[in-house]
Design goal:
Order of helices and strands: HHHHHEEHHHHHHHH
Number of helices: 13
Length: 320
């Protein structure tokens, strides 16, 4: 019954982190962003069913605290289920011929992080707008206008068209930008949860080194699928843009993994990585584009498999 007790505790903590956002302070927002972590930790450390219990209990707690069924549904769909699903995939394994367990590849897991992020962003839009796409568009435009106003503090002659064009572009790309960030945070939370559970000795699988991250080529089919979706109106088109944004982040993370892998054991590796992350911080758009193309090319050609690599020592798998 341990998985039930831990699930209840994690669900209450996650619900508390979620509802604290009503304080409308920066600290409250940061705490609310951590809401998936308790669900991930108990699902990885006690059983994926513990994550489901946390999701249900968190939803019920929010329904009671806020008297809002919509808020409870939002917690379940946006916070609980994505965290449970990724933990469930992370713990999938099958017996190998040599008596060890073959665990779900971390590259496939990254692909699912991107897909889950895109679907979650669209689910958020549907729930928050009551399923009315015009309301979703209106809110995206309001946020875009506020962002544009930061750069054009006062309207000047000749800037009206620029402001309008930039606002429309940002409003259209809002699902992509949201999914881009959500993919990063969900990947980070999954990694942090795995590290925490591994340190406690409860993680069933050995967590693979991040430089070995490599998505399968089947992920590439998501790109034409996303393009086709963008040709439709409504939430289907928004899902297409969200997929593009999520995949951009996934390929960027793989590009970083390739560089980490290829620099292992090289002299000056620390300076190379510090320089890389400094450039990434200073020239965000340029470096993200370059790294995403690098990760995209690695998915197609498999640079590390084709040319060999500085493979780190793999942790032993658990025997059956």
């Amino acid at each position: 019954m341990n998985f039930i007790a831990t699930g209840i505790g994690a669900g209450l903590v996650s619900a508390l982190l979620t509802v604290v956002v009503v304080k409308e302070t920066m600290l409250a927002v940061l705490l609310a962003m951590l809401a998936p972590l308790p669900v991930l930790i108990v699902a990885l450390g006690w059983n994926h069913r513990s994550g489901l219990v946390a999701t249900v209990i968190g939803g019920l707690a929010i329904a009671v605290f806020t008297a809002s069924p919509i808020s409870a549904i939002g917690f379940v769909v946006i916070t609980g289920l994505p965290a449970w699903w990724l933990a469930y995939l992370a713990l999938l394994g099958r017996p190998a011929a040599d008596g060890t367990i073959e665990w779900y590849p971390i590259g496939r897991l990254l692909g699912w992080v991107a897909a889950t992020a895109a679907l979650t962003i669209i689910a958020t839009g549907i729930i928050s707008s009551g399923g009315d796409y015009s309301v979703f568009q209106s809110r995206s435009r309001q946020i875009s206008e506020a962002f544009v106003t930061m750069f054009f503090e006062a309207p000047e002659q000749g800037t009206e068209n620029v402001r309008e064009s930039l606002t429309e572009t940002l409003a259209t790309m809002a699902p992509a930008l949201s999914a881009f960030g959500f993919t990063f945070f969900m990947g980070l939370y999954l990694w942090l949860a795995a590290k925490v559970v591994s340190a406690s000795g409860r993680l069933p699988r050995p967590w693979p080194p991040v430089p070995g991250l490599e998505m399968p080529r089947t992920v590439l089919w998501a790109l034409p699928a996303a393009f086709i979706l963008t040709q439709f109106e409504g939430f289907a088109g928004a899902l297409g843009y969200a997929l593009f944004g999520a995949l951009l982040m996934a390929f960027t993370l793989q590009g970083l993994a390739v560089i980490h892998d290829r620099t292992q054991g090289k002299p000056g590796r620390g300076f190379i990585l510090v320089g890389l992350y400094t450039l990434l911080f200073l020239t965000q758009g340029i470096m993200i584009t370059a790294l995403s193309f690098f990760g995209f090319a690695d998915t197609i050609f498999g640079f590390r498999r084709r040319f060999g690599g500085n493979k780190p020592k793999q942790p032993p798998t658990l025997s059956t």
